[in-house]
What does this fold into?
Amino acid sequence: MSDPFSYLDSMRGAFINELKELIQIESISTLSAKAGEVRRAAELVAQHLRGAGMSTVQIFETPRHPVVYGEWLGAPGAPTILIYGHYDVQPVDDPEKKWLTDPFTPVEREGNLYGRGSSDDKGQIFANIKAAQALAQNGGLPLNIKFLVEGEEEIGSPNLDHFIESHQELLRADVAVISDTAVLSLETPSIIYALRGLTYLEIEVSGPEKDLHSGQWGGSVHNPLQALCEIIAALHNPDGSINVEGFYDKVRPISAEERAAIAKVPLTESEWKRQTGAPQPWGEPSYSLRERVSARPTLEVHGLIGGFSGEGAKTVLPAHAKAKVSCRLVNDQDPHEIEHLIRRQVEKLTPPTVRSKVTPINYGDPAVVPIDSAAIKAAVDAYQRGWGTEPVFMREGGSIPVVATFSRMFHIPVLLVGYGLSDDGAHGPNEKFNLECFYRGMRTMIALLQNLGKMTPAQVKG
Ligand code: BES
Ligand code: MN
Ligand code: MN
It folds into this structure.
């Protein structure tokens, strides 16, 4: 056989089975107990890179989880593409008992493959590896390829910048491609041109030395859980904006032109309701729903820890309480500066009756990538040929820390061409990957590699 697209047709079932093996590995990067599983996933990715024709495949150690690198540089004179993805996944804790099947026992149901990481990002990076394989085994790769697949994306890529800085020659390329985002819908794919950044923190409030009897001491001790709630409640204004001094100083207003472009891909209230199940929208009234979820910064409480939460009653006055909080950031907010501003605000909001402490957990820079390059045109055509329809351009509310690093260090186009759906349930229960998206994703990447392979390195780099 010599047509990569027919090869895909014939391999569809085999590729799904191979993807299931990758999803079975519990590569939860944030849990230290799972470090062995994370490594197993790295090894399986390395094996698939060899299978896809990469002539050099290496697993690089970092202070925490390994980076997998693979390259095939057999097309001298042709452009070089750097394909990034992550093989680590988010935790699967399930307080609401919503997972219908085991998160690490992938199952097919109604055209979807269920399992943690199926969409974010194992299924998507796997699609790109298999697209390379389809070309390698059917006429050969039309350009040079480098794969960079990391195991720490879900914890904010804490060691990746250093790895990239110290391996600049190894990683040098004319264009970077990332498939770790969602399309607008199965009918309409999308190219992402902006991602939000992130600052993730813990706020701890403490009061009495130890837990106290609430009858004996209640009324005289400022309850740390209550004080924490008071601090957190004070971090928003009634209109939904964030009450942290200096927080908006670096937020560039959305231009009228961009607002008009965003309005062309609206998030309707009914679609919002279908996807969230919440009774009514909330947030800054002067911004549309699409703007709120992608172009505006946020402050979110992820969890409150403290006191008694077991069965029945325990009349205890807890000694301390903790909250997990994060902010989504937009250009030109700096994650470290935001940490500093929140720290200052929390100090200001902490009454003398308790003590507070802010501890950073992770960071990610916001990123905007240009959409007028020749490489972007190649991606538009790739969706057209591989997915079947022309893509729209969108901002995305999530974060991928490496995007800013690629732009800053290599000055190359970064193509955010994802294959997920916004209702895949990434990070939540019953995460799934639509198998039609998997298949169309592989086709899109074949088309993209073909398109870029027909260009000169200078044209690709733009
Ligand atoms: N693939 C996501 C980014 C994303 C989120 C794309 C939503 C499209 C829609 C990525 O794996 C992710 O979840 N990133 C983290 C980054 C953080 C830990 C620094 C995020 O956004 O929470
Ligand atoms: Mn991801
Ligand atoms: Mn994720």
